[in-house]
């Protein structure tokens, strides 16, 4: 039985991989000086190791119940709202609402060209003040659904290409992730909208190249208290968003031998040459610490950063871990995270949701 098993269920779980390239799991690290006090996060090597047990521990597993009416094919993202979980089924082009027992309550979306159907879903978010669910689809189209599943707004909101979205107290923020083909006044990284999706501000010009490299972050946006933070894994910075016109760079990220222009502009070049470069994989924020996982010199590493206090680098210890860190999604509790898992019960595979409690090293 896996260490991540629910203690009360006779099941076997295997973690859904955080990355689909198996070439990066040959890791060790070299020394670097610690206790760096800076407004720059330095992603380097280290002789000190860390394992998943030092970061997170599983405290609950919710098994998604079988249903003749619903079939979840893959889990791309999980959000928690009130007493339910909302699951983005990327292959099923759907958002499922699931209660805390694992029972599927409802479903929005499916593949197609008709009403309520999608050719592509890129991301979704939930407005915690209204309960409205917002689906972001291709070409920067949004559809807003009320809690009862009724579509109350459909709108194309930009000529720029948006890939991710998050809700705030005052509206929404969308990100192009430097992947838009537009230029000039339609080429920014972050766009802020009010709750009716009227544009308020454009922020941070995109890079002078259109990025095609895949991103591996579980969530581009992270919420801490009333603030929202965005990781720019290509422009190498973290931005704080405290208002519709208050988008500021929180800190720079420094990583040597970062991806070449060729790798950034060609996903095939990245697949072929990823071992030659260093790059960011994922991140999460816990207890005022920014945690970033990254590849450095063919090693899987993690940096812990607390603004103005410290920036530590670690090598990831696979001998004491159960593989790469899972994709961690924010929960209602700032010290807990959610992830998906696949559960084998001998006759069939089921999906589940793991609740994680953060640890301190």
Describe the protein's architecture and organization.
The protein has two helices and 29 strands. With about 350 residues, the chain is mainly beta. Strands 1, 4, 27, 28 and 29 form a five-stranded antiparallel β-sheet that branches. Strands 2-22-21-20-19 form a five-stranded mixed β-sheet, with no helix packed on it. A hairpin with a 2-residue loop joins strand 21 and strand 22.
Contiguous low-pLDDT stretches (5 residues minimum) are 1-38
* Tally of helical segments: 2
Structural class: mainly beta
Largest beta-sheet characterization: 5 strands, antiparallel
Q: Helix coverage percent of residues?
A: under 10%
Mean pLDDT metric? 86
Number of strands: 29
Which radius of gyration do the C-alpha atoms yield? 20 Å
Shape: globular
Strand content: over 45%
First CA to last CA: what distance?
26 Å
Name its key features.
single chain, mainly beta, 361 residues, 2 helices, five-stranded mixed beta sheet, disordered N terminus
List the topology elements:
Layout: E1 12-15, E2 40-42, E3 49-50, E4 56-63, E5 77-81, E6 84-89, E7 94-99, E8 104-108, E9 110-111, E10 117-118, E11 121-126, E12 133-137, E13 141-145, E14 151-156, E15 164-167, E16 172-175, E17 188-193, E18 199-205, E19 221-224, E20 227-232, E21 237-243, E22 246-254, H1 261-265, H2 267-273, E23 279-286, E24 289-296, E25 299-306, E26 310-316, E27 329-330, E28 336-344, E29 349-358
Parallel strand pairs: 2-22, 3-26, 9-10
Antiparallel strand pairs: 1-28, 4-29, 5-6, 6-7, 7-8, 11-12, 12-13, 13-14, 15-16, 16-17, 17-18, 19-20, 20-21, 21-22, 23-24, 24-25, 25-26, 27-28, 28-29
């Amino acid at each position: 039985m896996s260490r991540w098993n629910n203690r009360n269920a006779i099941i076997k779980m295997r973690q859904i991989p955080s990355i689909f390239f198996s070439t990066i799991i040959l890791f060790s690290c070299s020394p670097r000086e610690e206790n760096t006090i800076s407004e720059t996060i330095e992603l380097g090597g280290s002789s000190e190791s860390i394992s998943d047990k030092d970061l997170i521990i599983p405290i609950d597993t919710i098994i998604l119940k079988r249903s003749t009416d619903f079939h979840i094919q893959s889990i791309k993202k999980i959000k928690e709202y009130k007493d339910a979980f909302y699951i983005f089924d990327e292959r099923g082009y759907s958002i499922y609402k699931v209660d805390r027992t694992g029972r599927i309550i409802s479903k929005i979306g499916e593949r197609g060209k008709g009403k309520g159907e999608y050719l592509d879903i890129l991301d979704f978010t939930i407005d915690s003040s209204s309960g409205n669910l917002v689906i972001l689809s291709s070409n920067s189209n949004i559809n807003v659904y009320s809690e009862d599943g009724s579509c109350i707004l459909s709108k194309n909101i930009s000529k720029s290409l948006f890939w991710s979205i998050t809700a705030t107290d005052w509206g929404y923020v969308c990100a192009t992730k430097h992947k838009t083909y537009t230029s000039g006044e339609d080429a920014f990284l972050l766009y802020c909208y009010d709750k009716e999706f009227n544009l308020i501000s454009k922020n941070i010009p995109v890079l002078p190249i259109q990025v095609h490299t895949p991103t591996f972050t579980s969530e581009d946006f992270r919420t801490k208290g009333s603030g929202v933070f965005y990781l720019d894994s290509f422009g190498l910075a973290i931005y704080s968003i405290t208002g519709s016109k208050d988008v500021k760079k929180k800190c720079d990220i420094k990583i040597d031998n970062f991806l070449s222009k060729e790798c950034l502009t060609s996903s095939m070049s990245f697949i072929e040459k990823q071992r030659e470069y260093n790059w960011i994989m994922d991140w999460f924020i816990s207890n005022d610490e920014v945690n970033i996982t990254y590849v450095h010199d063919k090693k899987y590493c993690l940096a812990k950063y607390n603004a103005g206090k410290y920036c530590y680098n670690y090598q990831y210890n696979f001998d004491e871990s159960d593989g790469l860190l899972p994709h961690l999604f924010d929960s209602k509790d700032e010290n807990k995270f959610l992830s998906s898992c696949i559960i084998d019960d001998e006759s069939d595979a089921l999906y589940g949701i793991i609740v994680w409690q953060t640890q301190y090293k």
